[in-house]
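Protein record

Derive tokens from sequence
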Amino acid sequence: MQKPELLWKNKHTPYSSEFEDCYYSHIDGLKESEYVFITLNQLEKRWNTKKSFTVFELGFGTGLNFFATLKLWNALEDKKATKLHFISCELNPLTPQQINQALSHWPELNELKNSFLKQYQNSYLHFDNGFYRFELSSDVCLSLYIGDVKDALSQFHGVVDAWYLDGFAPSKNPKMWSQDVFNKAYELSQNETTLATFSAASQVRKNLIEAGFDVQKQKGFSGKREMLIGSVSDKKPNKKLKKAIDTPWFSYPAVSNVTDVAIIGGGVAGTSLVDRFASRKIKVKLIEKENTLAKRASGNLAAIYMPLFGAKENIQSNFILKSFNAFENHLMSLSQNGFDNFNRCGVMQLMTTDEQKVRFKSSINRLSYTKDFVEYYGKNKVEDLSGIKLNYEGVLFKKAGWVDPVALCKARIEQASPFVVVAYENEAVSVIKNTKNSNWLIKNKSGKIICETKAVVIANGIDCNSYAQTSWLPLGRLLGQVTHIQSEKLKDLKCILNFDGYLTPSLQNGMQLMGATHQRLEPNQTIDLSLKKSAQDYLYQQLSQVVDANVQFNPELLGKVDVRCISPDNLPVIGPVPDFDKFSNNYSELWKGNPRTVYSSGPVHSGLYLSVGHGARGVLSSYLGAELVVSQV
């Protein structure tokens, strides 16, 4: 990510060398923001008429408009609105230092700014194209898209209440003010949506009217003669727009705004969902068939969390990177409430082949991450940083580490305690639709109803195949074995070593964790002693290839083995559950490829959702996956 080159006017007004324009008025940027975007979008009045409110800003810049909006939101204690979702996009994000300098002129923003910069600093180290979410409080979240404005608009699925059009001047940055951009903005609007912009350019006005907005001129800020405001009334489809959904089978069902939900599964996926639903003050019933949380695949001594580097950009590595960012901010939030069962000790990826060296060097150069996030080291430095004798080059992921997944799950439940009830030793054997009221009934083995609710999220891994609605999913089973070891020669390890397996530093009682196997199991294959022994021998063999082969291991030390749930492409399965029979019927002729055929939106089981198939990086993907599910519910 290239750092924007700034000049500073009056020591606090940033000026873009690339676009030859100021980020805000040199007279008083905060007052300009309050007048143009807050007053003329009538936010104070409208926050008393809606329960939730969505702002979409084109051009994040220094974040000044966001902080001005947040300042007013926090000041209005008796407003009706309980949730503010602020969305913004930025092609050239400023550094944390640049944002801090720009906003330091307004001390009344310091507390808000500092809270945001703690999260932004972590994310900035590995910014890549896509959305990044920041939670400033339980009722405010910022979704910041890094990349082109058209991509940001196309990837947003929702409805906007107010638009802030705040790119650099149209003459300097015409792409931000194009007809395509305003067409998409209108498509994402509803009746009573408003817009405001400092610009009064005639082409901007024409483009907005062409898109469908009602547009008026308004007196500008501090002597500026004119600016533009707009609104939507009696919204009609814009026939000039390209068809919104070219692939209707990927369409999203309408948001249901439920007040309570049931979650099946008490591991990292299920408790991630609890955390995210509780942040919206939605009541949760968590159903767990064991007598404690995280007893199965989530129950290792430690879970490793680290990014995934691909030789080329791909969906999986991008998703895991965004998940890593979300999880880091989650740990930061938990730590403020006393959670300390994690260690950001770093993960050293050892370069055991020439192909790895080429791939990782290429990825680091391509992605342009800062050295505070990831760095390639030679053999001597790797040995120094790891604390043990090694003979490999390596890549150190400096913000990665390990977390105790059992403690993590318990901390989430404890933090969400006002909104969650856990039903232990209740195996949900069936999920049935109540035909009388469209609720879902969840029953146990004896046929007793555990709960009845409008929305259910299935998050119990491979067990989801036991339900009629999800039995068709082509999920697989992966043997995941970890072994606990003790070794005098390895006890000084400072960071996690990653190779064809991994080895942690000492965790508790001098115990270190060695893992993990990834052996695919046949559908009915059982995990017997010989399979466990074979997996353990494999781990020992991999470790002995990268450390002193004379290290003696104690095969009697305990380990853990369980089954991970995976999908065919190793991506998690997240979102509303498709209705298999209706899909098969509605799209039975899709194979003919007739371009004139019009298909209906993808049929789903209303109110039924999934978060499974998280595999080896489940502690990361399940958290961002939970946010996706909750946003859809």
In short: Residues 315-335 form the longest helix (21 residues). The mean pLDDT is 89. The CA atoms of residues 167 and 176 lie 6 Å apart.
